[in-house]
Amino acid sequence: MIEFQSLSFQYGRKQPLFSDFSLSLQPGCIAGMLGKNGAGKTTLLHLMGGLLEPREGSLNVNGFRPFDRQPGFLADVYLVPEEFSFPHTTIQTYMQAYSPFYPTFDIQKMEAILQEFQLNTAMQLNKISHGQRKKFLIAFALATNCKLLMFDEPTNGLDIPSKSQFRKILVSSVTDDQVVIISTHQVKDIDTIIDQVLVVDEGKLIFHQSTAEIASKWYFGWKETAGDEDVLYSEQGIGGYRIIRKADGKHESPIDLEILFNAVTNRFISDNP
What we know:
- The chain has about 270 residues and is of the alpha/beta class.
- It has 2 domains: about 1-200, Rossmann fold (3-Layer(aba) Sandwich); about 210-265, no CATH class.
- The chain is about 25% helix and about 30% strand.
- It has helices at about 40-50, 70-75, 90-100, 105-115, 130-145, 160-175, 210-215, 255-265, and strands spanning about 1-10, 20-25, 30-35, 55-60, 75-80, 150, 180-185, 195-200, 205-210, 220-225, 230-235, 240-245.
- Strands 5-6-7-3-8-9 form a 6-stranded mixed β-sheet, sandwiched between helices. Strands 2-1-4 form a 3-stranded antiparallel β-sheet, with no helix packed on it. Strands 10-12-11 form a 3-stranded antiparallel β-sheet.
- Helix 4 runs antiparallel to helix 5.
């Protein structure tokens, strides 16, 4: 469980990045966290991971205050950062050295995911490609079985087949007692696997709804013109317009996360339409 209550945070003497920020996430969800560059998505992950301390308000993760960094907290939280480095060692040696820090680490799951990603434990981490290192880190994170898993731009550096593998492996690996948060700009890489959408903008959580709620409220489609009165938001494309309108209860559509994000950040759509 994750609970932000009226949290404020700033770096040094800079303007506050977050002010009166609140959020609640329950186990059993995969949340996509979206925001513009500089919105503070990575900072939020670092706050949840105990790497930063809030200035005001409270933050509770699995019953712990993250910045206290108690052993019970650290053993059940894992962050896959956008940028990372590894020691000059093999995958096997890395696993042997770091897996004991996570009591629920599943070596069989790790080996199965490595095989799916076409990696083997004899590979030298400093000699494989960036994409291969990213896949290894994703595999290790999932094998920890931590109650909170955080991924910061996990599909950056992955080729198209690997992105598909990531989606399949993530969905098959996550259990109902876990919370997974994926922070990304690559919305099309996660639109089929998330069940919660979070939009962060100007220091606030301006949108938080489940994909089921979104699908029941709005219809995403394509029209040759965008002049209809029922169109809430539109973007011009080749030969027509991508549009959002209120759902009529008769027709369903796949959620277009990209246009939803643009509509939310431009204040055409809110949590309470």
